[in-house]
Amino acid sequence: MAMETILTVTGLHKSFGPIEVLRGIDLSVARGETVVILGGSGSGKSTLLRCINLLERPTSGMIEMEGEQIGRPGAALGQIAYKEKDLARFRTRIGMVFQQFNLFPHLSVRENVSIGQRRVLGRDRRKADERAMIQLEQVGLATKADSYPHQLSGGQQQRVAIARALAMDPAVMLFDEATSALDPELVGEVLTTMRGLREAGMTMLIVTHELGFAYHIADRVVFLDKGLVYEEGTPQEVIMNPHQPRTQDFMHGHTMFRLPDAADGRVY
Amino acid sequence: MAYEWQFAPVFRYAGLLWQGVLGTLMLTGTALLLALPLGLVLALLRLGKVPVLGRVAVIYIEFFRLSAAIVLLYWFYFAFPVLFDLTLDPFSAALLAIGLQAAAFYAEVFRAGLQSVPPGQWDAARAIGMKRAEALRSIILPQALRNTVPVFLARLVDLIKTSALAATIAYPDVVYAAMRVASQTYRPIETFTVLGAGFFIVIFCLSQASRRLEKRLAVGR
Amino acid sequence: MSYAWDFSFLPHYSLVLLRALGSTLKLAAICLAAGFILGCVFAAARTSRYVVLRLLAGAYVELFRNVPAIVLLFWFFYTIPLMTGIGNDRFLTAAIAFSLYAGAYFTEIIRSGIEAVDPGQWLAARALGFTPGALFRDIILPQAIKKMMPALANESIEVVKLTTVAATVAYPELLYTAKLLSDTEYRPVEAYTTVAGVLLIALLPMTLLLFRLERGMRRSG
So what's the ipTM on this one? Predict the structure, then answer.
């Protein structure tokens, strides 16, 4: 199966002061692949996502996406003077969905989805609004286009956040614990949306706690421990039959994980 | 600018300035003695069960908060005596103007403090049989005061700054003393520089103390 | 009340009073505008990457917030002629002193407004690829301004009240005019009460605006 590699991370290190959170991550993601990143707290999974779209500057290492390269393996990123402006450009190819949604409260739903297109990509208002409506249709919120974020439920806000990221035509979508801040009954609608994205062929990197969802949606699972890739493989391998001891501890420790059961009526 | 700074003459009159400081302290101190209890009463009235009294308190508070301090000073010194056919010395006029206004500001401080205590505390206090007054004294007020220390100190700083205006009605505070020293030494720039520095040091220390207290109280939560 | 109120002399002076109100508003407007600009400049300095700028701005804020306005006014009254050769311009003295004073307060208001914007907003905008300039302009600033509005309205009210202190250097605003009136007509009660009333009425629209802003803030959180 020849899959084109779209994103490569090489030798990624990230320290916050004296604490080294990422100790040399190597990862490649193929176009259309859905990779789920699992790990305990402090394993570095959120930090990894934020380094990939350069919200955090890696201490050293390289990130390569669609041929464009940031950093050099082995070289400290700080040695190369990247201006925030250059990094901003890099970020337009990567979409991110946050745990806290972070919608812009002073803008309507439609404006939230269109402002990035207009200010960053330079699309004119009409095209941006049209595109915004298309994205909102895709996540099922076209009727709320003129509402404001505080009028929506958590699940709706997160779906708008997904639409906002998609409107930028990213090559890769990053999901940083997208459902962790949601009430349980709202989680399903977001997961359904993410599943729809996967079926449409989007390349996705997902950090999540929902093991059941991870099992169903992932093409590949990466288990992070103490800032390194500890175990990697198919969902069947890593989640159901982990080889490594710490992975086993983690999977068994998650008593919320239920065996996938098609008859249980859950949305996955 | 070839101005020759000469601070020596100013310091020769240090005694006069010091008397002014005492005057400021006297005014600020007595104004607090008036403002704090009155402010507390106003806050309690405002939060209390009697709507009429509550509204009176609100009117008082909003009126004095909106008034310019120096206008109040002039009014109490020039208009008030004529209105009620009394004589009022500068101290009393200043005390009334500054104290009554400060009471309004402190009323808001106390109100915020009282409202910051979770309502469950009242329930708990009364559930063990305390009467309202006792609950207020031993449960509610201590918590309310603790929450408002930084704002309290900020208002105190405001009070000190406002008291500087009392010189305009010839109350012998430190500003008034500085005016006299300036005219005696013919060195107004140095005199007022010293005056400014003096205020700065005192108020800056108070602000710093307030900020540090705020941090320490926030940790204890 | 045994006092016989007599406002009959007022209409004769209505033009004088109107002009005094104009002077009050003119001084207030200049100080608000200049103070706001100073506030923006120093708020930027306060949050800049360069330590020197942060310290300088911090010194400015501390200096002008910890010294009473009247002391600043007197200081500038004597030093401005020296620095600029312009002697005895009451408006200039008051404008400079009070603009700098207001600027210190505006600096803190603007800075808090920006810092009050949820950090997640910066993250989301950067994730979309916003450059720092566009980010600040389209995402942060609109939200910051909304958060600042009540404090800005409040400070504006304070600046208007502050203009009354300029009476001490004989700037012909409302309070000074009241004193002139009172001395001329021997009716301090009516003169000072009228001026106090005029000031309150002038502040009324701003207070209503403040009220509505505060309510709006509480609703949208």
Answer: 0.89
